[in-house]
Amino acid sequence: MSQKTKSILRDWVESIIIAFLLAMVIRTFAVQAFKIPTGSMRMTLKEGDLILVNKFIYGAKVPFFNIALPALREPERGDVIVFIYPEDRSKDFIKRLVGLPGETVEIKGGSIYIDDKPIDGSIFKQTYYYNRGDFAAEGQKIVVPGDSYFVLGDNSLSSKDSRYWGFVPKKYLLGKAMFIYWPLNRIRAIK
């Protein structure tokens, strides 16, 4: 093999390695793509939507070290979040954040009440929330633990969410869903 061929081959290998490492850093700390598998977030997200999730906004996790980078901001009510499913840590779930640490959550008459006051915001007024599961019986008030969140699917009728399995620990947060990038006719920011 000639010296010129070796040089070209070396340049290609170096470029591929650098591109791979850069992609891994971006995927781990900045932005990750996810595919929506079910209709639990309809009409916000539909089956098959491809979305981008901002992983650094809540403090990206450093692999193998059980630490997180500093967060840009704390999660807020109404954020659509991606998290590790508490009942099967091999799965990632996506739901809307409803209850913050220390708050009391109640579902009454199809509406969500936080600390005995109806939730504000048009996002929550567009959905009828059903009293289902162990954590949302009629008349039941649930206090969100200090290191956790209460989440609900936008499609309340067919969503397995905090009403069934409880709370999402803060350490399970992966990021905030930001943008639908596929299919083309659904490209938009996620609200």
What report would you give on this structure?
By secondary structure, this protein is an alpha+beta fold. The protein has helices spanning 3-29, 122-125, 162-165; strands spanning 31-35, 50-54, 61-62, 67-68, 80-84, 92-99, 104-108, 111-114, 117-118, 142-143, 148-152, 168-169, 173-182, 188-189. The protein has one domain (31-189): Umud Fragment, subunit A (Ribbon). The strands form 3 sheets. Strands 1, 2, 5, 6, 11, 12, 13 and 14 form an 8-stranded antiparallel β-sheet that branches.
Question: Short description, anyone?
Answer:
This protein has 191 residues and is α+β, with helices and mostly antiparallel strands. Helix content is 18%, strand content 31%.
CATH class: Mainly Beta
Q: Could you spell the SSE succession in H and E letters?
A: HEEEEEEEEEHEEHEEE
Q: Could you tell me the number of beta strands?
A: 14
CATH architecture verdict: Ribbon
